[in-house]
Write a structure and sequence with these properties.
This protein is an alpha+beta fold. It is built from ten helices and 15 strands. Keywords: Nickel.
């Protein structure tokens, strides 16, 4: 439903999403976006047309391998793996098994892989801040491989602990584990929160496959745009090292900058325990790549611990241009003021004074 609603609101994403989805599906399967209705409301359904169930993914490892090996658009792999990992950790916690030993039952199908990759593709394509209303609680029992279980399913409640729910009196499973993992990925621990204001740019409606009594089975998304800074989630990792040489630290920082998902690294000289000189490393990363970046930190540095904190960063609208033969970056600041900064790598003059003169001329 999420994918259908988003492609309804942002049809320009359809080509990218379909390409990513078909990169992980078998040749005899096809993702379909079709018009339909639920109750009195029209919208779209996102589904899978297939001719066989051969070699369907069952284990967490199988899902991870299929996503990892596929040729996907930029950012899709990290986002899809994050969604899948949330599903995996929930099952691992419920059954008390290691993550790599998780075997799925109800979601062990191509449909799940399709939904996860499609949602990851949308998440990666949009530098958006997400908020959600209170989630429908549902009610009754759901049939699983482990017998009848109360709604919401255990994995759903595990993933969405801390989120707001509402009881609208409509029974049935209203939020699936896959849907829960998508919600958790998009909001990244922020939970269900108030919407930010802006200009309403689009609305989309995704349809479910079941008909509910007395209420349309739909998911609606609204897209708002703002003229000011955009927000994105980022993960800050900080740690100190006191037993690496300057050359080793510089090499490690260069290697970490090349790790997919790393956004920025700052090195700060400081004093640690017993007055020892240390280097504090402040690293920003895409939250979806957090664990991968953490592992790279432990591999490239001597630190024994990393502090991790998710936060939001606001980014000014920016665009690249060319001024007087120099590549520049334009930024739009509050009040509509546009500032221009020359790209330092473009300054090739031999002396500092000549480089400063060229930058000054381009930035006027």
């Amino acid at each position: 439903m999420f994918v259908a609603a988003m492609l309804s609101a942002r049809p320009e994403l359809t080509e990218r999403v379909m390409a990513d989805v078909h990169a992980v599906l078998p040749p005899d399967a096809a993702a379909m976006l079709t018009e339909g209705s639920s109750g009195a409301l029209s919208g779209y359904r996102f589904g899978l047309e297939r001719t066989s169930l051969a070699d369907r993914p069952v284990s967490y490892g199988a899902f991870r391998t299929m996503i990892g090996d596929a040729r996907l658009a930029q950012g899709t792999r990290l986002a899809a793996l994050d969604i899948m990992e949330r599903l995996g950790w929930a099952e691992a916690a419920i059954h008390r098994v290691p993550l790599d030993d998780v075997h799925f039952h109800e979601i062990a199908d191509w449909d799940t892989l399709m939904d996860v990759v499609a949602a990851g593709s949308i998440s990666a394509a949009l530098a958006a801040t997400w908020s959600i209303a209170a989630l429908p609680l549902g009610g009754g029992l759901v049939r699983t491989a482990h017998g009848l279980l109360p709604v919401p399913a255990p994995a759903t409640t595990m993933i969405l602990t801390g989120y707001d729910w509402r009881d609208d009196g409509v029974p049935g499973e209203r939020v699936t584990p896959t849907g829960a993992a998508i919600v958790a990925h998009l909001t990244a621990g922020a939970g269900s929160g108030a919407r930010r204001g802006g200009r309403l740019a689009a609305m989309g409606t995704g349809l479910g496959t079941r008909e509910l009594e007395g209420v349309p089975n739909v998911l609606r998304v609204t897209v708002f745009e703002t003229d000011g800074p955009r927000s994105e989630r980022t993960e800050m990792m900080t740690f100190e090292v006191d037993d690496m040489t300057g050359e080793e630290i510089a090499t490690a920082a260069d290697l970490l900058r090349k790790v997919q998902g790393v956004r920025d690294i700052v090195l700060v000289p400081a004093f640690g325990k017993k007055g020892r000189p240390v280097t504090r490393v402040e690293l920003q990363a895409d939250p979806a790549a957090g664990d991968r970046v953490r592992d790279a930190v432990f591999s490239q540095t001597s630190t024994l611990g990393v502090r991790r904190q998710e936060m939001r960063r606001d980014i000014l609208p920016r665009a690249k241009g060319l001024e007087k033969g120099q590549s520049v970056k334009h930024a739009v600041r509050p009040g509509g003021v546009v500032t221009t900064k020359v790209e330092q790598d473009e300054l090739t003059a031999e002396t500092l004074q000549a480089r400063r003169r060229a930058a000054h001329e381009a930035e006027q």
